[in-house]
Design a protein that fits this description.
6-stranded antiparallel sheet; GvpL/GvpF family gas vesicle protein; about 30% strand; gas vesicle; 4-stranded antiparallel sheet; alpha+beta; GvpL/GvpF; about 250 residues
Length: about 250
């Protein structure tokens, strides 16, 4: 392998066979995807130019495409975050050897399991209605409108505090009404911090593949109940990104 090339890793799987997968296009060039094996574990990898890869849309989609293909053929997939490039196959093998004690525990824990994501976004009309139904907030909001920016400075801070309190109470309601009932069907569940102002729930669920249909049904029931107030963004299946804590560093392979 030339010095200019390195090995990009997508995910790890449980297999003792060398496997080749469909090629993938990275920055306009087709790359073969293959496995690098150690005992009954393997990294799914491709040979790529040795450089930093930025998480722009095409690159992220390339990563996801490979992981999705791997998931369609393997029931035990350990996710690896985007952008990890190692100098050589030998480095990846050394890394696999270092990680193997962790993998021995992780493989049985996530065998046959997938991650599903659910984001709940408050609809504008619903959020506005909640503000109007809060007399204190409505009064403060009207008072701010009638003042200059400098005169309303402290009122705005107070209004911001009230809005935060309202959103926190709505987020707690979504956790109680949507997250907790879904958690009962999941092997594990995690409520992450919301990633936007109107997001009321940002959850990930680890599901047994055999229960995916039942879980979908529960999500649909929750959506039916709340669809006038919120939008659902339901995604997956993914490997268990939120439930596996694997940190790869190039120096670990040394």
């Amino acid at each position: 392998m030339s010095e200019e090339n390195g090995i990009y890793v997508f995910c790890a799987i449980q297999t003792d066979k060398d496997e080749s997968l469909d090629s993938v296009e990275l920055e306009g060039v087709k790359r073969d995807v293959f496995t690098i094996n150690y005992k009954d574990s393997a990294m799914v990898a491709a040979e790529v130019p040795m450089k930093i890869y930025h998480p722009k849309k095409d690159n992220l989609m390339m990563h996801q495409k490979v992981v999705s293909e791997v998931m369609s053929k393997n029931d035990t997939v350990i996710p690896i975050s985007f952008g990890n490039v190692f100098q050589s196959e030998e480095d990846v093998k050394a890394l696999l050897e270092n990680l193997y004690p962790q993998f021995e525990k992780l493989f049985p824990a996530i065998k046959g399991k997938i991650e599903l994501g659910l984001k709940v976004i408050g609809k504008k009309e619903y959020l506005e209605k909640m503000v109007k139904e809060n007399p204190e907030m409505e009064k403060m909001s009207s008072s701010v409108k009638g003042k200059s920016e400098s005169a309303a400075y402290y009122d705005r801070i107070k209004l911001g505090g009230m809005a935060q309190k309202l959103f926190t109470s709505l987020q707690e309601e979504m956790k109680r009404e949507i997250f907790e009932p879904l958690e009962e069907t999941a092997e594990a569940a995690k409520a992450n911090d919301p990633s936007s102002e109107t997001m009321l729930l940002n959850a990930a669920f680890l599901i047994d593949r055999d229960k995916e249909e039942l879980f979908d049904q529960k999500v649909n029931e929750a959506h039916e109940k709340w669809k006038d107030k919120v939008d659902f963004q339901y995604s997956g299946p993914w490997p268990a990104y939120n439930f596996v804590n694997i940190r790869l560093k190039v120096e670990e392979a040394g």
